[in-house]
Each structure stands twice: as C-alpha cells, then as structure tokens.
Prior knowledge:
Order of helices and strands of chain B: HEHEHHEHHEHEHEHEHEHH
Radius of gyration of chain A: 20 Å
Oligomer: heterodimer
Distance between the termini of chain B: 48 Å
Strand order of the largest sheet of chain B: 1-2-3-4-5-6-7-8
Shape of chain B: globular
Number of domains of chain B: 1
CATH class of chain B: Alpha Beta
Largest sheet of chain B: 8 strands, parallel, barrel
Strand order of the largest sheet of chain A: 3-4-14-9-10-13
Number of helices of chain A: 17
Radius of gyration of chain B: 17 Å
Number of strands of chain B: 8
Number of strands of chain A: 14
CATH superfamily of chain B: Aldolase class I
Helix content of chain B: 25-40%
Structural class of chain A: alpha/beta
CATH class of the largest domain in chain A: Alpha Beta
Shape of chain A: globular
Distance between the termini of chain A: 47 Å
Strand content of chain A: 15-25%
CATH architecture of chain B: Alpha-Beta Barrel
Amino acid sequence: MTLEMGQADRERLLAEVLAGRVPDARGRFGPFGGRYVPETLIPALERLERGVREQLHREDFQAALGSELTTWAGRPTALTRAGRLSSRWGAEVWLKREDLAHTGAHKINNAIGQALLARRLGARRIVAETGAGQHGVASAAACARLGLPCTVYMGEVDMERQAPNVGRMRLLGTTVVAVKSGDRTLRAAIDEAIRDWVSDPLHTYYLLGSSIGPHPYPYLVRELQAVIGREARAQMLAQAGGLPDAVIACVGGGSNAIGLFHAFVPDASVEIIGIEAGGRGRGLGENAATLAFGRPGVLHGCYSLLLQDEHGQVQETHSISAGLDYSSVGPEHALLLATGRARYDTATDAEALDAVKECCESEGILPALESAHAIAGAKRWAERHRGGRLLIGLSGRGDKDMSTLQQTLIARLAAVSS
Amino acid sequence: MSATSERPRERITAAIRAVSRSGDPALVAYLTAGFPRRERFAEDLHALARGADVIEIGVPFTDPMADGVTIQRASAAALAQGVTLEWILAELAALQAVRVPVLLMSYLNPLLAFGVTRLPQAAARAGVSGLIVPDLPFDESSPLGDALASEGLALVQMVTPVTGPERLARLCEVSEGFVYAVTMTGTTGRTVAVPPETIEYLDGVRSRSRLPVCAGFGIRGAEQVARLRGHVDGVIVGSALVEVLERGEDPARWLAGLRGGEPRPRAVTPRGSDRSPGDRSR
C-alpha cells in the first residue's frame, strides 16, 4: 500500500479515531470517504444525510429498530465459547454468532435499519446490490416485512455460485436482475444498482449493503452494524469476564468487521485484525485483498483503497467467497489501517475451506465461506499468542455455500471415504 | 473576448457562442477514445471536427456508472484495445491541431492514477481545453479544479432536473467553459422526449448562467435538436454518435443532419441501445 502520511498526521488521525470523531461532517474518514457521484444523485444523498442526522438516533426510530431487531431479527445473537477450537489452538476462542441472525448473517441489521429509514423518507421502492446474496436476501426480507417493493441486482457469476439465495429472494417477493456487464460479480452489481437509482433518485432508495459508497453510507452502515460489537463487548465482559486480546473479522466491503470493531476501537488493549480474501495468491486478479495490495482511488462514490492497475482501471478480483469478492473496501478500514489502529491480513481460498471444516467438526457450526476467512486468520493469531483470548466475528452461516462446498470439501471427503 | 490572449476554457465558450449567437444550438460531439478501433482515433476525431463545434473525448473506465449500455460497451472495447489516458494525450499531442476545442470526459479514477499535479500541463500540451468529470461533484472538486485553473483549463459542472435552485445557481456560477445541463435523471443513451418541463428547466438554467448552456443525455435526432432551439446554446450528442461510428457511417454527415441541414429519418438503434438497465424495473 502506498499511503503518504506523515507521523504527525497519523497521530492526529489516530486521536480522532480513538475519540470516535470520524467521519467528519463531509463524510471523511481522514483522507478517505467523501462523495464522488454524478450530480443527479446529490439531492438524494443530501436528503439521506439529513434523514440520517434527524432520524437515526431519535428515540422513536431506535425504538422501532430495536423492536424489529429483537422480535423479528433474533437479536441479541449469542456469544459462544468455542471449547474444542480453544483446546485445539491453545487459546480462548469466542464466537460472535451473526450466523444466528434472521436470514443467516449480519446483513439483516443494516437491511432492516435502512428499510425503516427509507420508509420514513417516503421511498416508493428499494434497490439493492448483492454479492453472496446475503444482503439481497436480507433486503428482500426487510422489504417484505415493511411492504416496500424491492429490486436486487446480482452478478451472473454470483447468481450461479449462490443459487439458493436467488430463490430465497424471489420467494420473498423481490425482483432479482442478473447483471451481465463488467465483472459480473459484486462490483458490476453495484454499478447497475447505481444506474437504476440515477434513473429515479427521488423515489427510489438505494439500500447499500456494505460500509462503502458515498457519504453517508459508510457511516450509516457502521452505525447500524455497530450493534454487533456493542453486544459482543458486553457479552465478553459478562461471559468471559473481560475484554478479548484480539477481535478478528473478515473484510470484503467491511460491514461486519466495522460493526464488530467499532465498540472495541477505544479499547487500547484490544488488537483489531481484519482478514481479507487472499484467493489463489498475491498477483493482481488472484485475490480480493484491497487493504493488502490496493492503492488509493475512487470507486462507487468513495475515496478508499482500490485494486487497480497503473492507469486507474479497476481490477477484477478472485475469492472463493462471493461476499468478499470486491475491488475496494470501506473508507473507515482504510483509515484504521493508515493509523495503525487495526491491521489486516489475508487468508487464502484453501485456508478458508480448511477453516470451514475445522469449525464444522469442532463446534458443530457451518460458517459462511466469508466468515471462515476470519477463522483461518484467528488460527494463525492463536499460534503466536498461546493462551490469548480471541473474539471471532462469525458473520454468517454457510448453508448458502453448499454448491461450492459440494465441489470442494465434500467432494474430497467423498473421495477419501470411497 | 480577445482572440489573442484567449485561455483554453474561453476557447470552448467562444466556439459555442459563435454558433448559438445565430440561434442554432452548437453541436458538442462525444466519442469514446479508441472506439470502435484504436487505429482510427485520429481519423474519427478529424471526421467529427468537420461536423461539430466542440469535441468531447471519452476516457474509458471500467466502471462507468453514469453511462448506459452503448458507452459501457464502447469503454470496455476501448480498454480491451489498451486505450489509456496516457495514450490519448500522446495521440492528441501528435495530431495536427483539431480545428474545434477538445474536452476530456473522464471518470475521476483514471485522472487520479495519471496524477492530478501533472495532468493540467499534459492536457494543455495535448491541446485539451477542459474536462468533464461525471463522478466529481463540485463539493469535492477543488484539488482538480485548482490544478486545472493553473493552465486555464475548464472544469465543466453538470446540473440536472433534480438540482435545487440554490445549488443550481452555485453550479452555474462556478462552472467553466459551459454549463452541462443533464436533460433527465438516468444514464446516458436513452431517447428523451422533450416535454415542456424539460424546456422550462433548460430555460431556468439558462437564465441563471452567464456561460453557454449545453443540453446532454439522450439526444439522438434532429427533431429533439429543433425542439431545443432557442432554449440552449448547445446540444451534446454521445451514445447516438458512438453508434454512428460503430456502424462505420460518416459522423460529419450525421451531425449535419442533426442541425436540420440534411434531414434524415432517425436511424434504427442497434441492440436495444437506447434502453438503460434502469428501465427494466419500470
């Protein structure tokens, strides 16, 4: 990563981060973030920003959101002590179980929150993008719950990898549009969702699924996902008797990670680690590890780190997990990296598959391939910190990955047993 | 307007005014650099210059989020042929001067990768008079705008039918070269009827702008241009012209047809090109 930032700037920004003063009024996380969109979208973003400012922290909005989260979405999610993983790794391992949330991942926290906001802002329809399908399913469910029409854009490649989620969205009454342009994965799906939104910015609400995009989305999504870390922190204190030494989450766009990390950012003793998709290796196009290999640039309305070539063309990515397969990353992660408050590492496709197997066998939990990256990273941390206490964000369940697992892990198991 | 000490951005304004003074809208013609074929870039550019008053050169980008299918296709094809901003500027610098002012239309990221500090000089040396950056709203534009100002290059601001009155006035005030009035919400390339609201909106923009106002997005035929006469100083044609080049037709002839000089029936558009993805859900 090439980020020219002097020591003094770094320290000043770190102080801002620790004091919880990011983003600033213009949606800047230090140098990152901002609002780089066609002029047509500016009024819609200004209205959303106003809506966020006036509604999000209002008591009646929080009451409505809290009620949906507890009575419909299944919050709080459990904190599970991973006893057998702990003995295998020689560390104290805890899992924050977002896989137990309604629709099977953390995505529902954001989807129901934004859908409630959209309704208050008078939206007539919702558009969303989806990679792994989890945000699409969560949006579809939230829209069904609130009676809002929903259209989800999904890359053709992802529709194939995540076929069951396509069916779920359709059952929930959502229109799923196959995106055949660009890289035919998450990035192209976001391009198309934005194009739809540009066509009707006053009546269409864009329900963005990750902590990316133009201001105020990275902030809004963080605020809606921060419930993960708030719960986890209180649960750690109650169940483990203290804070973890490290919190670890997978990072694609980075919403589950920022949601888990946010409450721990001021806790100086807690190491914060994000795990990106290392894919097949280090080369451009072989992974989706933006924080590891990216350079600053603008994509989808936001100045952040990008996997791009020397001419500023955005590169295609590879990951076995559709949910991490993205060429950029949330601006707050870029800042956490730049200030040194968090560090980021990668796990390869193969390591993620091994982690799926280990988690299944040891804990009776089938994690999403995305979450398995965090588990793989955690295992590595544990090797270097014997006896350490570790909190892993288990962002989603792996049922959606059965077709990928069928062709990989399960095929191998079958070959061994025959 | 002194012709001798004219800065590049004033060339754009003057070229549009020279036509619009007569009442006819100036023609601002867009092509994606290197599309359909990279080897034909110089030739296409000169052909366009025979029919247009200002030329916009599209710098291809992998994620053209404000563009419909035609320009998406053109961008992807240009990138596949290795077209870069570096190459475009080198080609322009090597050309004999194009007789009309040239602007670059680029998403922000290729400009950032090129380097905001070295861009203005390189662009000026290549004979470029200004830039249009569709994903750079005015609020975020100061680093680039300041850099361009050092060479007298224009940074053109866009206004849209959903832009509020205060912001509209501000954008008209800070724009350079001309004001780009987007005719509709949506991506480029769709056919736009010109309803009374659009005319009213364009009149409103024009009344607030000291610079010429050019209407763009979805202009494809002579009837639309005729309808806009007297309400704008120029019209911008993009997707439809890209399709003309794609079909191997003479762009100057097509542009003459737009002016009503040589009325011709609207060509059948290929491959559903005037439909944007957003339409599907409507």
